[in-house]
Every structure is written in C-alpha cells, then in structure tokens.
Amino acid sequence: MKFNNLNQCVSFLAQEKELIRIREPVDPHLDMAEITRRVFDAGGPALLFENVNGSPFPALSNLYGTWQRTLKIFEPQLEQVKALVDMTSDPMQAVRSLGRGFKAGMALARSLPLPVQKNRTLTQMTRIDQLPQITCWPGDGGAFLLLPQVFSLDPDSDSVLKSNLGMYRIQLSGNDYPPNEEIGLHYQLHRGIGVHHQKALEKNRPLKVSIFIGGPPAHALAAVMPLPEGMPEIAFAGALAGRNFRYFRHNGFVLSTDADFCITGWVMPHQTRPEGPFGDHLGYYSNVHEFPCIRVASVWHRPGAIFPFTVVGRPPREDSHFGRLIHEITRNAVAKALPGVTAVNAVDAAGVHPLLLAKARERYLPYDAPMPRELLTHAHAILGKGQLSLAKYLFICAHEDDPGLDVNDEKQFLMHVLERVDFSRDLHFVTCTTMDTLDYSGQQINQGSKLVMAAAGPVKRRLGPTLPVQFSLPDGFSHAVMAAPGIAVIQGLAFTSYPRARQQISPVKKYLETLGDASGLALVVVVDDARFCADTFDNFLWVTFLRSNPSHDIYGIKERTLHKHWGCQAPLVIDARIKPFHAALLEPDPEVALRVDRMACKGGPLFKIL
C-alpha cells in the first residue's frame, strides 16, 4: 500500500485486523521487547503500545512480524521496484516487456527526492530521554533505537543524491554518554556511512547526521538495502513508497518531512566512547567496544508521532522478512552483477553472514573430467561483492550437476555438496582476514577466516542416513546424533583452549579413520549439546557455522598441507563448541516472561494471541 506516513500504515493495519492496541502501561525496560518476541513467535499482529512508561509517545512493534503482513505493507509498489531494479541491470527488458517497462517507469518517477521549502510536519521538539527507552535484553548496556534511518551527506558535496541512508545501531543511554547530549553510533564493516566518516576525518571536521525514525515503512527498508555505492537510498525509498522522498534543510541538516522523529547532530572527529553490550541478531550479545558518538543538536517530532521499534535476536525475527524482501527485489540484479552465478542464499538460520550457499556455472574445460575451476572464479567474485564479502563459509556447487537444486533448501544443498566435494582438493581457506563485526568466532573483533567449499562433478560418496553399526566414541565424547544424512553431531567436553582441543579431537579423528569411506559420514560436528543441535536443521546451522572459525576449528582425517594447500579425507570435523572468548548467549529475564504470561490470561491484552 501507498503510505504517506506511519499513522496511515497503522490505520490500514487496524482495518485489516492486523494490529492490536495495548492500552495498559508497559515498561520499555525488557517488557515491551518480551511481548514483541512472544507475539512474533505466535505469528500475531502488529502491536501499538499506547501507554509507554516514562514517555509521552506511543510505540509500534511487530510491524513486519509475518511475511503476509510485510507483503501487504509493500505491495503493489514492490512489483514496480523489482521491475526498476531489473531494468537497471538489464535495460533491454523495457523493450522485451512493455508491462514491466511501465512498472519500472512508475517507480523511477517516484525516485527523485523533492525539497520542501517550508516545514509543516516536524514542528515540535523533545529530548532524547523522552523517547521510549526500549531495552530488549537483560545484558544490554542501555536503551537503543532499533529502526533508525541514519542520514549523512558526502562531505565533498551538498547534494542529497550523494547521500547515504543506513540502519545503524544508536545507543540512547547508558555507559559514558552524557544524558540528552550524546548518543552512540555503531556501524559495521562495509557500511556507506563509513565512506562519509572517513572523508570528514580527513578534513578534521564533524560529520553532520540526521536520524529519521518512523515515516513510511518503505523508508526503513530502503535504509537496509544493499545498493551500489553512489546510488542514494532516499531515491529507492521514494520508489518503494510510491511517493517521492520529501525533505527540508534546517541549520545545515537535512530532515525528512515524512518522519515521525528526527534527531540531528554531529559525529565528532576522533572521538569514541564504549558502546554496548547489545543483544544482536545472531542470538548473542555484541560486546562493549569503542565506537563513534553523536553530539546531539536537536530532537524533532511531528504531532501524533509514533515510535517504531523492532526486537532482534536469534533468527528468525522481523529482520528475517526484510532479508527475504531484499532477496526478492535483487534476485535478478545479483545474477547480472555476478555473471555465471545462478543463485545465492545468505542463510538466515545461521545468522546471514556466517553461511552463504551459491550455485554457478562450471564451463572452463567441458572436455575434461569435471572439477571446480570456474567455480573458484565465481567464489572470488562473490567474496568481492558488497556485503556478500562478509560471508564466513561459502559452499558453492556447479549449476550443471543439478539445475533444479534449490539454494533455499539448506539441508538438500549441503548434502549435494558433501556428496561431491573432494576434501583433499576443494577446501580453500582465507586466513587472517576481515570478518563481520558481530561475529565473535575469532579472538578479535573484525578478524577471522573464511572457507570456500567447492563441488563439481559426479557423486563421490553416499551419505548414510544413520550412524554406522556399533558406532562408538572416545572418552569425553557422547550422544552421537545424525543431523542429516552424512552429517553427525557429537557432544564433547567444554572447550578450554586450542591446544587442548587438538588433543581432545585427535582420538576422534583416529576412530573415524578406522571406519573408512563405508561409514557414510562426510561431516562430523563437535558441539556442547548434541541433542539440541540435531533437534532441528536450523539449530544445526546456527550452532555449526556461527560458533566456528574455519582456520582454527576445522580438522580432517589424514589432514596434510601440500604446497600451502590444506586437505584431508572424509569426514571433515568442525569444532563448534562455545569458546571462552565468544559473546554471551541471549537469555530472556524469567520474571519478565511471567509478567507477559499474565497479560495472556483471560481479560489481558494478549488473551487469545499468546
């Protein structure tokens, strides 16, 4: 639907019976987040908290809580934007399909930002501490903005067409931030604001930023779109909203006239403060680290402003639906940007960046025995492309071996690769490299390793559906369980150090070697809780690829290094136990959970929802 502002979206969802109003006073410290998580898990409606303790503003959550509701919000503009993105990568589509060309033209007409001479919407002012102070997890370092749209201009240009709009975490309170004067800015690797910040630092001057909160839902989605560098997100926001992005300038800052709130301020040069902890979308806390801070200039809001927020944690959550939308919009464009790559899937269940699955063409030597050749070229292209470069594990296979293989069927895809991979040849490590900021599998922030596993050609091994007969484990290991055909998880003692881990896993390798190829095992994963890991395949993906660092945690049968290439025989062993340096797991507060339970009783606002 086409919404000029967030209030229109709320009214639409109420008419569609996709929203409930919670009129009772609710605490923004943990309670609102716990309610949101529980309602999301139940597939429930959007939530409008009308009486937020400590704030005069209502708050909205679970807006994108179901895929069906997300589509309702963004259709029909979504089809027009998909057509526009496709035309951008393949202009001849406008000739081949006049209908899609017309849709693309409609979106293009809405993409030019429109300046407004007089501000008639953001007419009132408030303070940071008057905003809903939402804290999602017990270990969070303070209250955070959870759907911010952070806007910055290129320090070399005053044009909004050279701007950046990104969703970067904003800490409102806690730590060393002077109340109402400074707030934290957490941006990760490969984020557009980093380019602007670097230029400002080179000039030794503050970077002006405006933080938009609320407005049409399309603006929030635009802030997380992985657009090419130089393409302004506010243009995409207008195209997706079906209404040009409108803005005005005040005291040198750019303000969105459609936003519910706007915080203006400066990122001061060479000034950082401790930011975090924060319960993040990987299912763990991101720890306290030094990040830039924003000196607050002003906090604007419109009359009747609504404060939107989301709650992140172990996937799936609301941001999973954003990820799915992005995939829907960019699917054809990715194929054009990476010629020969036919499909990719950044696996949501594994936390997105830890695991990437891809299919690509293998055409280099069609007259010779098949093996990964062109696949490695494609793998390097993928790891050099935008946010795909943050992938930790990349499993890539030849499209020709099974054209119908679905990269979104993670279990079937992994089985396909494990049946065909040559462990002595097809594992390619990248060590001592940059990693996703939120991935704590390495021992230092932003540092870790990558593994490319490439597979092409006929089946090399059959994956057994069950453990080998009379399967036994060395002392210290127990509870061997099959997670999928050819994939076993075994429970080990608590990890203490890497030298100790090598000693512990050595007898496991020796035992697996005695089984030989007839074991039907291609991958064995050492975990802390085998039953949990094997209970669902999503659990397996989350544990295996989030809790391991390829260069440190992969072992193999008869492993060896030949001319700097590491290889082994099957099965591969991954140590996915929790390490002492890993970030803490997210756990809800049990007392808060009991309060939410009471709200679900008869007569409570969540009765028949939870």
Explain this structure.
- The structure is a single chain.
- The protein is α+β, with helices and mostly antiparallel strands.
- 29% of the residues lie in helices and 26% in strands.
- It contains 17 helices and 28 strands.
- Strands 5, 6, 7, 8, 9, 10, 11, 14 and 17 form a 9-stranded antiparallel sheet that branches. Strands 19-20-21-23-22 form a 5-stranded mixed sheet, with helices on both faces.
- Strand 24 and strand 25 (487-491) form a beta hairpin.
- Helix 4 crosses helix 9.
- The radius of gyration is 25 Å and the shape is globular.
- The two termini are 28 Å apart.
- The mean pLDDT is 92.
Main sheet properties: 9 strands, antiparallel
Distance between the terminal alpha carbons, to the nearest Å? 28 Å
Portion in strands? 25-35%
Proportion in helices: 25-40%
Looking at the structure, what is the overall shape?
Answer: globular
| Mean pLDDT over the full residue set | 92
Low-pLDDT residue spans: none
Overall SS class: alpha+beta
Calculate Rg over CA atoms: 25 Å
Number of strands: 28
Total number of helical segments? 17
